[in-house]
Amino acid sequence: MGKSIKTNREKMKQQLNPLWRYARKVVAAELDDDHDPSGFDETDSEKVSQTITVCTLPYNEKGRLFF
After folding, report:
1. CA 58 to chain centre
2. Minimal CA–CA distance to 51: which of 39, 35, 64?
3. Domain spans in the chain, listed from the N-terminal domain onward
4. pLDDT one-digit tens code per residue, 13-67
5. From CA 19, how far away is CA 25, in angstroms rounded?
């Protein structure tokens, strides 16, 4: 193997190591963060029922919107 190829491979390794450390840090932070910003982790049947009621209030029994 030529000297320039060996040198280039060493340079690439030196550049990739910080990238891999950063990637591992990001993945670890994502795995540790179990908070779901969507709020689905706190949903219960009562909240679902309330939401359905609110969403269907503007409709009559035939499914038409009241205006």
Report:
1. 34
2. 39
3. 3-56
4. 888 989 999 999 988 888 876 565 555 666 788 888 888 888 877 776 777 776 5
5. 10
Write the single-letter amino acid at 7. T
Identify any residues that bridge with 59 across adjacent strands, giving them in sequence order.
65
**Token representation of residue 21:** 């450390």
CA 31 vs CA 2, 23, 42, 65: distances in Å = 42, 12, 19, 44
- The pLDDT score that the predictor gives to residue 39 is 55
| 42: phi then psi, degrees, rounded to nearest 5 | -110, 10
DSSP structure string for the chain? --HHHHHHHHHHHHHHHHHHHHHHHHHHHHHH----TTSGGG--HHHHHHHHHHHHTTB-TTSPBP-
